[in-house]
Specification:
The chain contains 13 helices and 25 strands. With 586 residues, the chain is α+β, with helices and mostly antiparallel strands. The longest helix has 22 residues. The N terminus is likely disordered.
């Protein structure tokens, strides 16, 4: 087995960690599985995104489902099939080429996880090892009671019944794990199906039919992106966003929790929830491209939350619109450089810009004649919420201390102006008048004498988040503060073609945190709005390169080490890539 960083051999229930850029993610809308280079599933929550994981070795817990080459002398690779989250892992040994095609079966069942893995002997005879060690409670509850029933093995791990089909020759090992050695002749393939559910599955799964259903699902879900720059990346971004979006309506910010943004700094967060802002970004990206399922889902989810909570709209919810669990730490080692926690305190904050993004989302739906009567009532309620709250200090885009953040006000102005263009005359006048009022106060309090937008009322620092409302039309055409602010941000926050969100006092860029990939795409949009397409493409191309071979983006990028930082895949980065591609195509 490969050594761990400490030099000790890795164990079946805790595979060694890899750099984040090396992991792939499978997702079906209801949960996600993280796959390592050796074919090890190191993260899978069941039955839904914010449930406890059945495999948690990614964050120092226990449990894995590994399908990989028996020969330790191999190199790995892999890719997604175009326009899907069907991943094909690939290993080359001294005399063989082995592939493992893998996906979460789709369309997904709410209470049942079905994981498909097809081993293919591309060249030579494939010799593959299989290991199944399910756990519950972040690894604290072991798998027990493994029994064979014909070609099927079943076992229990806490709340979960695990069923593995396709490996009748497996054997229980120490600790209850199932082990197998498989031989697949050259040119042949072998299907493995793992089902995780609360109760027994009565009939054996038909792997061929499950694969056909999954292929049809992705073919129907992900649109053609012909004509966009980086067409394949744009389709992949759409696939990621679709894969992170539940049938209940919510889109998780990321599939994982507690992957550190910076080693040993305590910045570890649980992103397995729906941020209204992030989902609005996804809907706006779909609207910019001209395809509507992600837009419709985002509008429906946002409208339900606004009508339920009004001016008390929370920044984040569970995927079915519920309240987030309280934040708590776990007694696990964590991914190297981090520690584990679940829940998120952001839901208790007031973030004014969320209202602005929701207004932009409703305006995009109206532009495409997709704003139904329920969403229209929600749009009216959002305008009223802004009218009653825009003067309040808020935690802002980056969820910091309460201040009079400039970005929050400009986001609201952008949303009000966008909605005014598609509202009936009386409502349009209301939106436009409120936008003028907010913008006038923000100019007075947050614009420097040099014509540069400051971070907040009492902070003249550069703020990359300002690029987005400036790019989306919060100011009249030709307003010089767009160019001045954009260039100021570039001078102060850019390094080697990547953009940081703000400076942490006098700390040099790159020491306090990584570059924010979201902000690089914001700069591409702002440069395009400012009439500089070459600059816009430069930012777009540089930022979209900050991923590993699976093409997944995290929140941050360590510029010096060329490493991904934070949870993955970070939905809002993929959303802004898609929006940037659609904008630059025009």
């Amino acid at each position: 087995m490969p050594p761990t960083p400490s030099g000790e051999p890795s164990t079946p229930d805790r595979p060694r960690p890899w750099a984040l850029r090396d992991y792939a993610v499978l997702a079906d809308g209801e949960r996600g599985a993280v796959v390592g280079p050796h074919g090890e599933i190191v993260w899978l929550c069941a039955p839904r995104w914010d449930s406890d994981p059945v495999f948690s070795s990614l964050v120092g817990g226990a449990g894995t489902f590994t399908v990989g080459p028996e020969d330790p002398w191999h190199v790995w690779g892999g890719s997604y099939e175009d326009g899907s989250l069907i991943h094909v892992g690939r290993w080359v040994t001294g005399d063989t080429v082995i592939e493992c095609r893998e996906a979460l079966a789709a369309p997904a069942a709410a209470d049942r996880v079905v994981l498909l893995r097809r081993i293919r002997a591309v060249r030579g005879t494939a010799r593959v090892r299989v290991l199944l060690e399910g756990r519950d409670g972040f690894g604290s509850v072991p798998m027990t009671g493994a029994r064979r029933h014909g070609d099927t093995w079943t076992a229990r791990a806490g709340r979960h019944l695990l069923r593995l089909d396709g490996v009748p020759g497996a054997r229980p090992g120490p600790g209850g794990a199932l082990h197998a050695r498989l031989t697949v002749p050259a040119g042949d393939s072998l299907d493995l199906v793992l089902t995780v559910s609360p109760a027994a599955v009565p009939a054996p799964p038909d792997a061929a039919r499950l694969w056909e259903s999954t292929e049809r699902h992705w073919a129907a879900a992900v649109p053609d992106c012909a004509g966009l720059p980086a067409e394949r990346d744009a389709r992949h971004a759409y696939a990621v966003l679709h894969g992170l979006t539940s049938a209940a309506g919510g889109m998780v910010a990321a599939a994982t929790t507690s992957l550190p943004e910076r080693a040993n700094t305590g910045r570890n967060y649980d992103y397995r929830f729906t941020w209204i802002r992030d989902q609005a970004y996804a809907g706006l990206a779909a609207a910019a491209h001209g395809t509507f399922p992600l837009l419709d889902t985002a509008v429906r989810f946002a409208a339900e939350r606004v009508l339920a909570d009004g001016s008390r709209l929370r920044p984040a919810y569970t995927v079915d619109g519920g309240r987030l669990t309280a934040e708590r730490s776990l007694s696990l080692p964590g991914y190297p450089g981090g520690f584990d926690r679940t829940g998120n305190r952001a839901a208790d904050q007031f973030q004014l810009d969320t209202f602005g993004e929701v207004l932009q989302l409703f305006a995009a739906a109206a532009r495409h004649d997709r704003l139904d009567s329920t969403a229209l009532r929600a749009a009216e309620a959002t305008v009223e919420a802004v009218a009653h709250t825009w003067l309040r200090p808020d935690a802002g885009l980056w969820e910091l201390e309460n201040r009079w953040w400039t970005h929050s006000r400009l986001a609201v102005v952008t949303g009000l102006r966008a909605l005014a263009r598609h509202a009936p005359p009386t409502a349009a006048r209301r939106c436009a008048g409120l936008a003028d009022t907010v913008l006038a106060a923000t100019r007075r309090r947050c614009l420097t004498p040099a014509g540069i937008w400051r971070r907040s009322e009492h902070d003249d620092g550069a703020e990359a988040g300002l690029l987005l409302p400036l790019a989306r039309g919060c100011l009249p055409a030709g307003d010089p503060t767009l160019t001045r602010t954009r260039r100021y941000i570039e001078r102060r926050l850019a390094d080697d073609g990547y953009l940081y969100r703000f400076r942490h006092r006098d700390t040099p860029l790159g020491e306090a945190e990584g570059a924010f990939l979201l902000c690089g795409f914001m700069m591409a949009l702002a440069a395009a709005r400012d009439g500089e397409p070459v600059t816009a493409f430069r930012w777009f191309e540089r930022t979209r390169a900050a991923c590993g071979s699976p093409g997944l983006f995290t929140e941050e990028w360590d510029v010096r080490q060329r490493q991904a930082r934070g949870n993955l895949p970070q939905a809002f980065v993929h959303a802004l890539l898609l929006e940037s591609a659609a904008t630059l195509a025009r």
